[in-house]
Design goal:
Helix content: 25-40%
InterPro entries: Macro_dom, Macro_dom-like
CATH topology: Leucine Aminopeptidase, subunit E, domain 1
Radius of gyration: 15 Å
Strand content: 15-25%
Distance between the termini: 10 Å
Protein name: Macro domain-containing protein
Bound molecules: ligand AR6
Largest sheet: 6 strands, mixed
Pfam family, one: Macro
GO molecular function: O-acetyl-ADP-ribose deacetylase activity
Strand order of the largest sheet: 1-6-5-2-4-3
CATH class: Alpha Beta
CATH superfamily: Leucine Aminopeptidase, subunit E, domain 1
Length: about 180
Amino acid sequence: MSAFGDRICIHTGDITRLAVDAIVNAANSSLLGGGGVDGAIHRAAGPELVAECRMLNGCKTGDAKLTKGYRLPARYVIHTVGPVWQGGGKGEAELLASCYRRSLEIALGHECRTVAFPAISTGIYRFPKDEATGIAVGTVSDFLRRNIVPEMVTFCCFDEPMAELYRRAVAAIGEG
Ligand code: AR6
């Protein structure tokens, strides 16, 4: 296991239940809510969340913006906008990596010691899960290697097959 391996954890369950400093939301560019994990986060946080989001003027694909967590156990929500999968030739991989990097930069800027990510773009936005988990683990481990904050990053998976993909991606990094 590499030096930062003990700073990555894989969890199966609902991200809205995690008592971390920041959870990341797989949002859309309006930041005004939607389905999937975005809908779950807005439901759990309460209406104050969309009220704060309305003041942010949306968010570009690959970028991220921070709000408070309101009724969530997490102190903050970092909203990022993943790419819609269009076959792989439209910069999707780089945009997805940028989502993880920008979210971690914002977490660092707000001294978030613990951060949890969902598998951005792998649901409604149809990014292939195998490639997406490789990008997620590669980008996060690269950031952890260069920064001491966050101390711990959780990949929160909705189901066990996704957790297995993350385990494999983490193992592959450890071997590299
Ligand atoms: N906790 C953890 N993971 C979850 C949860 C949850 N409560 N709910 C779903 N997932 P998706 P996207 C997983 O579709 O592909 C929204 O409408 C899910 O199994 O939520 O980035 C936004 O407003 C999948 O692996 O996000 C955008 O319009 C992962 O979260 C659009 O969907 C991401 O699936 C974004 O699509």
